[in-house]
């Protein structure tokens, strides 16, 4: 007994000593290489370590704040030498705090100070530093010749994390995912060399980055193709008269058919369901009169009518869905929420899945009094941009799907309740229990850290996984860029 205690104290002490030695080794290496870091406990440290999702805070071994590509290279080299995992953080909006490593003890490369956006007026190609946030990107592109790329709604989300794993928003039915606009990237690899990649240069790496980019290196800057921002967009919503499972299943089935066959390319929309209301919300790339004409048949099918519409310009459209936040945001960024979230992508739902999902929605979910929501994005269909891109062009695995879902359960005070996980897990199972694996998948931009690494890789990457694991074996065989759901290399 005493001996065991002594042994375990000894073991504990030696582990702690090893931890301190590692920390000292990293500190020495970084300062020797002249890499800027946050002093532990400083204001900058506290800002950089604050996760968007307060449910999942982690403590890095050190935080590097590079101002050059050479600093990123040196940081990667120091991490490799010290045997420490390293992860880039751009907007810090990972639902699982994977920018902080998703666990304690990683070296974090905080990129959010690097955020310049420059449009080449001859080619309309934008060069964007990796730490830029979506609102800053949209504003800067618009101010340089009214250009735009496709992306999501929240101004504080980092372009890097977003576009390296997908990037869906109120432009995506018309213009595809954020990653569909990526033309090239400059990347620091695990051996600390820097390479450019594109369709013609290091093309396997470029393929892997566009879907699973967090596992292959640290992108320091991007090239993006751009499109001309529309001069007029119309923001709209309509209440859905779904008061019970039967009404929801009937309405959703009609909507599904319309999205599959009829929804015009210019229309972008989602169902937004909360405990007390269910709405259709959207953005039409065109004037209000054209929207009203295009959507009238759907309103009849759904037994509702269009609410107020707001005709505005492109930036007005962005502001309409930004939750009232400042659009052009950069460091320091301080918004946080406490939540658990899950994702899903599915094909059109067969009747059994539709029934089961709506039964859960109006039977169980409506009983939960927390501030939850479900978003169902009208993502695919005949006129959608996402399925028009060949599946093998990028590692993004879900182009054949019709809907993208986000399940989000917030807690405003205290800690997240342990029975919250069952609530959303049960809802997702209500779909997947009635689908084949080919009919569904998951989206790592709404990362769910309760899945183990094996299950996560399969659900996020489906048919792309074997090749992703090959590329991982080539560029990062020792998993320097590890986090709990990163790609595992082929043996
Ligand atoms: C409020 C909110 C709104 C959102 N809205 C949308 C939306 O409308 N549509 C949508 O599709 N998604 C949306 N998301 C999800 C968002 O796209 C993802 O969370 C995204 O990964 C965040 O990127 P980030 O750079 O902010 O996060 P981070 O936490 O910094 O990074 C996320 C992951 O990417 C890696 N990474 C970051 N930078 C780099 C880099 N330079 N090189 C390589 N890997 C890198 C990190 O290591 C980490 O694994 C939203 C999230 C939030 C919190
Ligand atoms: C990457 O491309 C940029 C121009 O886009 C160039 O300045 C740089 O030298 C290239 N780097 C490498 C390693 O090829
Ligand atoms: C993708 O598939 C098409 C058709 O099978 C093939 O011609 C093309 O070479 C493939 N591209 C890549 C990048 O693998
Ligand atoms: C991972 O999770 C899946 C699904 O819950 C389970 O079947 C599998 O055994 C788990 N694998 C490991 C290695 O824990
Ligand atoms: C670094 O890794 C890349 C990708 O594996 C490889 O092509 C390159 O030769 C390596 N460079 C050095 C200097 O080892």
UniProtKB/TrEMBL annotation:
<keyword id="KW-0560">Oxidoreductase</keyword>
<dbReference type="InterPro" id="IPR016166">
    <property type="entry name" value="FAD-bd_PCMH"/>
</dbReference>
<dbReference type="InterPro" id="IPR006094">
    <property type="entry name" value="Oxid_FAD_bind_N"/>
</dbReference>
<dbReference type="InterPro" id="IPR050416">
    <property type="entry name" value="FAD-linked_Oxidoreductase"/>
</dbReference>
<protein>
    <submittedName>
        <fullName>FAD-binding domain-containing protein</fullName>
    </submittedName>
</protein>
<feature type="signal peptide">
    <location>
        <begin position="1"/>
        <end position="18"/>
    </location>
</feature>
<dbReference type="GO" id="GO:0071949">
    <property type="term" value="F:FAD binding"/>
</dbReference>
<keyword id="KW-0274">FAD</keyword>
<keyword id="KW-0285">Flavoprotein</keyword>
<dbReference type="InterPro" id="IPR012951">
    <property type="entry name" value="BBE"/>
</dbReference>
<dbReference type="GO" id="GO:0016491">
    <property type="term" value="F:oxidoreductase activity"/>
</dbReference>
<dbReference type="InterPro" id="IPR036318">
    <property type="entry name" value="FAD-bd_PCMH-like_sf"/>
</dbReference>
<dbReference type="Pfam" id="PF08031">
    <property type="entry name" value="BBE"/>
</dbReference>
<feature type="domain" description="FAD-binding PCMH-type">
    <location>
        <begin position="56"/>
        <end position="229"/>
    </location>
</feature>
<dbReference type="Pfam" id="PF01565">
    <property type="entry name" value="FAD_binding_4"/>
</dbReference>
<comment type="similarity">
    <text>Belongs to the oxygen-dependent FAD-linked oxidoreductase family.</text>
</comment>
<keyword id="KW-0732">Signal</keyword>
<dbReference type="InterPro" id="IPR016169">
    <property type="entry name" value="FAD-bd_PCMH_sub2"/>
</dbReference>
